[in-house]
Write a structure and sequence with these properties.
single chain; alpha/beta; Non-ribosomal Peptide Synthetase Peptidyl Carrier Protein, Chain A; four-stranded mixed beta sheet; 12 helices; Peptidase_aspartic_dom_sf; LOC107383513-like protein; Retrovirus_Pol_polyprotein
């Protein structure tokens, strides 16, 4: 062990000189010298303050409690204290409440209950993820939108205006200032140009099409564990490198709120009416749209991306931009085969080039019949039914 250990060994005081040759007694002295005395109060405080952390598995939490209780000197009450700490410190408060109401609760029953609850929660989350889909898919949805409330108010105000002159209220026809006037748009009488119905119809259609928000459907935009890193690239926006995922199913580019805030020279965030909806029904709020120059392998590209609200959203690179940056390639390959006048793509067709085949049938052969297998033969069906009815009556 070295000269220092020899000096420490010579400093030990034993009750009997013969104890210097006893291995167990020497080891106990060494442990007493090197291992400092533990503060039981501090160890118990650490034990009672230990709770299940967010994202921590129940098995890890229970194992940590066992390790902490080892130096608490609970004695026979170690299992009871561990049980109480699991009940109070488990992250699922609904399970904690049920365990507190249970009678004759043991440590084994507590561990089994929290394990089963965690397993059921994991299975439910996996089923929900499978229903939502794991493919990053973005599709346009035309025609589904809600009319803003301010537009409804504008239409209500328009209904209160005079249909001839446009002034508030509805004046009598003989009192309307537009009476006898000729419209400069349609050349008809009794209304002004700003209230012309012909022009209004066209203007309303254009307004509706311009104000109609475009809707996009998003799949799972979170990075899955074990995902292939080859589908992720680094793009330089200004002086800030950001990681984007190549998504050939996306029609638009997506940048997360966290990534946008991390850019050194933040691009201007423009308002937008784009709607991002996931297939599972949960919508993703779109904060705005940005336009910025990005650099990839020494080349610059113009990137228009939509800022999606959320801290765990991946940055997605659309199909169009991936093709433009030559990250993916569209393979258009067709096999053209020459069709001969007397044949098809698989060669000549017609009769077989072989000797004629003659099929001979045996005489006096009965045709083979296939019968459906039944649980009860049809001839015995009435008797079986009668017997079953008799047995029911006897019961």
């Amino acid at each position: 062990m070295g000269q220092e250990a020899e000096n420490i060994f010579r400093s030990f005081v034993f009750d009997d000189v013969a104890h210097r040759d006893d291995f167990d007694r020497v080891l106990a002295k060494l442990n007493e010298y090197f291992i400092p005395r533990r503060n039981v109060i501090h160890e118990r405080a650490c034990f009672h303050q230990r709770t299940q952390r967010p994202g921590e598995k129940v098995e890890t939490f229970i194992r940590a409690l066992y390790e902490l209780s080892e130096h608490c000197e609970f004695g026979a009450a170690r299992d009871e204290n561990t049980r109480d700490r699991i009940v109070v410190g488990v992250l699922d408060k609904e399970v904690s409440r049920k365990l507190q109401l249970a009678k004759d609760l043991t440590l084994t029953l507590t561990i089994e209950t929290v394990r089963q609850a965690e397993e059921i929660t994991t299975q439910i989350n996996l089923q929900g993820g499978a229903a939502g889909g794991s493919v990053n898919e973005i599709k346009r949805d035309r025609g589904k939108y809600r009319t803003p409330r301010n537009k409804l108010k504008d239409k209500a105000q328009q209904r209160q205006q005079c249909g001839r002159c446009g002034k508030p209220g509805r004046d009598a026809e003989e009192m309307c200032p537009a009476r006898g006037s000729t419209c400069n748009s349609c050349q008809k009488v009794c209304h002004w140009r700003k209230m012309c119905r012909t022009k209004k119809v066209v203007r309303e259609v254009v307004t509706e099409l311009a104000d109609q928000p475009q809707s996009y459907f998003l799949g799972a935009v979170n990075k899955m564990a074990g995902e292939n890193e080859h589908w992720f690239i680094k793009l330089l926006i200004g002086l800030t490198p950001l990681e984007f995922k190549i998504d050939t199913g996306a029609d638009v580019k997506i940048i997360s709120e966290e990534a946008y805030l991390s850019i050194t020279l933040t691009p201007l965030l423009q308002p937008t009416h784009i709607l991002l909806d996931s297939p599972g029904g949960g919508g993703i709020k779109c904060i705005g749209r940005i336009q910025s120059s990005v650099t990839y392998k020494g080349k610059k590209y113009l990137l228009t991306a939509y800022d999606a609200h959320g801290r765990s959203v991946n940055n997605l690179l659309s199909r169009e931009k991936s093709v433009e940056m030559k990250l993916v390639r569209i393979i258009e390959e067709a096999i053209h085969q020459q069709v001969r006048p007397c044949g098809g793509p698989f060669g000549d067709y017609g009769t077989l080039k072989t000797e004629p085949v003659k099929i001979e049938l045996k005489e006096n052969v009965a045709p083979y019949a296939v019968f459906t297998a039944r649980r009860v033969p049809l001839p015995m069906l009435p008797k079986v039914k009668e017997e079953l009815q008799r047995m029911e009556k006897t019961e």
